[in-house]
Every structure is written in structure tokens, then in C-alpha cells.
Amino acid sequence: MGKDKTFDVLVVGDLNVDLIMNKINKMPQIGEEQRADEMDLVMGGSTAIFACNIAKLGSRTEFMSKLGDDSFGKFLLKEMESHNVGIKSIITDPSLRTGATIIFILNNDRMMVTYPGSMEHLAMNEISDDILGSARHIHTSAIFFQPLLKDGLAELFKRAKKMGLTTSMDTQWDPEEVWDLDLKNVLPNLDFFLPNEDEFIRLAGQPDLESALKSLEHHNTCFVIKRGAKGALMVHHKKRTEITAAPITKIVDTIGAGDSFNAGFIHAYLNGKELETCLEEGNRTAAVSTTAAGGVDGIISYEQVAEKAAEMRRLRN
């Protein structure tokens, strides 16, 4: 794939603030007040975390989303720029309020409450051919919080493929648990599908992982299924590749680990690496991301990720 484009990857999707309540004494209970020993206000959004981390790894990245003209929106624009992500395609709408997620963390468990705000209002027809044509690859995520984008996904990926882009998507969880994604029309133009195991099973409408894979194996899509502590499974043209979870010496939090996996995988792919290597680099990027609070502070550069992952392997052995 040539590099005669302005950007390596156009990232389209959610951008919001995360208010992280960490080390809480117990999960929130109705009618009670709980205590948190740590708090952070950071940039959030599955797609935004992916964008920042793939930019840090070295991919030229442009981001498209919709924000309100408010203090959260201004904070997020500065944050994206600070991570070397292009923001010219972000739309600011003064009639909207920027979305926010409150995250409660107890040990390795977490609970999240999201106000979608402006992220619900980005529509497929706002993504012009000029924007698409500027990139080699397009990625999106968290589509159940973006109903207008979700409804146009099949057409968006079809347009992208006609313009020579490769495509990837990670759906994230459906808070309504309806799972109404038109996979039949989305998958023919989707190169990489990157959900976690529970999401994949529900999206396929099957009782287990093997049944879900069987029901979708006729598609040319490369399925990359993230399995948490069990590692990851990649299935492409019926060839299966499994990888165990990378060693982690100390987990600070797991926010954005899946998005970081996606960033490592797609960055490796855009640099011409074999799919098995992409899987390995996604795995190690996810591991390194858990060593700092929030989704982006753990990743500094491609070289840092490689060195940190090697150090964790040495300490584990």
C-alpha cells in the first residue's frame, strides 16, 4: 500500500471526557455514597484512544468527530493536538454538549455511565470524499453510541473501499443490548473486525464463540477477537492464530486496552507486517497501555512499547 496520502489513517467516531473514580471502596449503590481515593479527568472515547495511540506509534492520523462548543470540547481539542492527532476534521457544534463518561474502578472491575452528547450527532454524509481520500485506512469504533454513523456504516465502508482504503472496526458494547448491526452488508467491505469475545458472540447472534465464527466464516474479513486474560484469536480465510495475553507486571487500569490493541495491530498492518506479527504487536501494545491511568498515558512511542513489553517479559520470566 503506497504512502502518497496525507494521512495513514482516518479515525471516525467518539470523543468525550472520562471522569475516572479509582480505588473506590465499593461499587455505587442506590441511596448510598461511596468513596474514591483517586480521580482523573482525561480524554476518552474508544475511537479517540485508538487515534492517539496509533499516532504515538508513528502513523499519520486524522480524527473526525463532533463536539460541543463548551469547556469539555475545548479540553479535548487540546488533548488530541498534544498527541499529534490531526483535528481539522472535528466538527464543533454550539447547539450540542460534549459527551462524558464516569468510570468507577474497583480492583480490576469497572462500571461506566456515559452521556453521549455530541457523539450521537455525527452522520455518514458529513464524511466527504475529500476527507476519505486523504487517508490510506479508515477505522471506527463505539458505533452503538453513534446511531447516525451506525446506520451508514455499510455505505461508508463501501465508499472507502472504492477509493482504495482499507477498513477496520471495533463495535464496543451495545448499552441497550439489542446488537442491531447490519453485519451482512458491513462485512463485505470490512477488512478487519476487532471486537472482544462477548461482543462478537452477541453480534453474530450465536450461543458461543465457535458457532459465531462458523456463521461468519464465508466472509473475507479478518476477524480479530480479543479475549482479555486469555489473549486473542485471529481467523482469516479459516486459518486460526491464537496468542496468549502478554505479561503485565503491574496493572494500573485496563481502560483503553482493547483500543490500544487495535492501534498496535493496525499500525503494524499499515507498515506491511504479516498478520501474525500484527497480532503480536497489538497484544503487546494492549499490555503496555495498562501500566498507566487512562487510555493513552501508557503509550509513548513505538520504541517505548517494544522496550516496555520486553522488560515485562524479562521480569515475568
Structural commentary:
This protein is an alpha/beta fold and 317 residues long. It is 34% helix and 24% strand. It has eleven helices and 14 strands. The protein has helices spanning 46-57, 71-82, 129-132, 147-151, 153-162, 183-186, 197-204, 209-216, 257-270, 275-289, 302-316, and strands at residues 7-12, 16-24, 36-44, 61-64, 66-68, 91-93, 100-106, 109-115, 135-141, 166-170, 192-193, 222-226, 232-236, 239-243. A hairpin with a 5-residue loop joins strand 12 (222-226) and strand 13. The mean pLDDT is 94.
TL;DR of this structure?
The chain is α/β, with parallel strands linked by helices and 317 residues long.
Main sheet attributes: strand count, strand direction, barrel closure: 8 strands, mixed
CATH fold topology: UDP-N-acetylmuramoyl-L-alanine:D-glutamate ligase
Q: What is the strand content?
A: 15-25%
**DSSP summary, beta strand count:** 14
Quickly count the helices: 11
Please identify the structural class as seen in this structure: alpha/beta
User: Can you give the helix content as a percent range?
Assistant: 25-40%
Average pLDDT across residues?
94
Q: In the CATH hierarchy, what is the superfamily?
A: Ribokinase
Report how far apart the termini are. Answer: 38 Å
Integer tally of domains: 1
CATH class: Alpha Beta
Low-pLDDT stretches are: none
Silhouette: globular
Summarize the helix and strand pattern as letters. EEEHEEHEEEHEHHEHEHHEEEHHH
Write out the strand line-up for the largest beta sheet, numbering strands in chain order. Answer: 4-1-9-10-11-12-13-14
